[in-house]
Structure formats: C-alpha cells, structure tokens
C-alpha cells in the first residue's frame, strides 16, 4: 500500500527523491479515490525501485493541496527532480498512469 505523507515528509519523500514520484491527492470519503487504490498498489509493485507512489490526504494537508492547485480528486501529480512534470485527474486506467510514469524514467 502506498505511503501516506504529511507536509513534513513531503520535501524529503517527493521533492528530494532521486526517482520519479507519483503523488495521489485523495480523501477517505472519495469513492473514485478508493477505486484507484488497487490500481496504485499494482503500479507500486510494477515500479518498485524505479518510481515511488505516495498519497496525500487533502483533508489533512490542505496547504499542500492548495500549493499544487488540487481542485478535484483523485488528482495525480508526477514529480521528477522536485518539479511537477505531468498530472492526471479522476479515476483513470492503469495504462494512462504507467505511460506517464514511463515518460519520466
């Protein structure tokens, strides 16, 4: 299961990561977010050691959500070298997220 980060962990885990990071901005009450759980778990297994998958709960970390312009969830931001390089919105297919990750590897 993807690691849930707080604001204090975000810099080290995402911005300073040596590998690409897929950040899932989500909320516990969000149905489409829950639907994406198994997809993200599968991607995490497939990309072990090549990319990281982490989660940010927008209810618990509203300042991070605001900083990255998260207006609707699920919202996926792909980071490389501390910068947002790509993003995707909504409950989407695994193939879309893996294509975006592959572009950053």
From TrEMBL:
Residues the record marks as site: Contributes to redox potential value: 31-32
All residue ranges annotated as the Thioredoxin domain in the record: 1-105
Cysteine-cysteine disulfides: 30-33
A GO-annotated cellular component: cytoplasm
Alphabetic keyword roster: Disulfide bond, Electron transport, Redox-active center, Transport
Pfam families: Thioredoxin
Site entry: Deprotonates C-terminal active site Cys: 24
SUPFAM superfamilies per the UniProt record, alphabetical: Thioredoxin-like
Source organism superkingdom: Bacteria
Active site: 30 (nucleophile), 33 (nucleophile)
GO molecular-function term, one example from the UniProt record: protein-disulfide reductase activity
Family under the similarity heading: Belongs to the thioredoxin family.
NCBIfam families from the UniProt entry: thioredoxin (TIGR01068)
Protein name from the UniProt record: Thioredoxin
Origin species: Eggerthia catenaformis OT 569 = DSM 20559
């Amino acid at each position: 299961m993807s690691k849930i980060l707080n604001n204090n962990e975000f810099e080290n885990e995402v911005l300073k990561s040596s590998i690409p990071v897929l950040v899932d901005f989500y909320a516990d009450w969000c149905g489409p977010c829950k639907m994406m759980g198994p997809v993200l778990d599968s991607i995490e297994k497939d990309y072990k050691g090549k990319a990281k998958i982490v989660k940010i709960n927008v209810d618990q970390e509203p300042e991070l959500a605001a900083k990255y312009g998260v207006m609707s969830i699920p919202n996926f931001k792909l980071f490389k070298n501390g910068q947002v390089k790509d993003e995707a919105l909504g409950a989407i297919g695994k193939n879309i997220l893996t294509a975006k990750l592959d572009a950053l590897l």
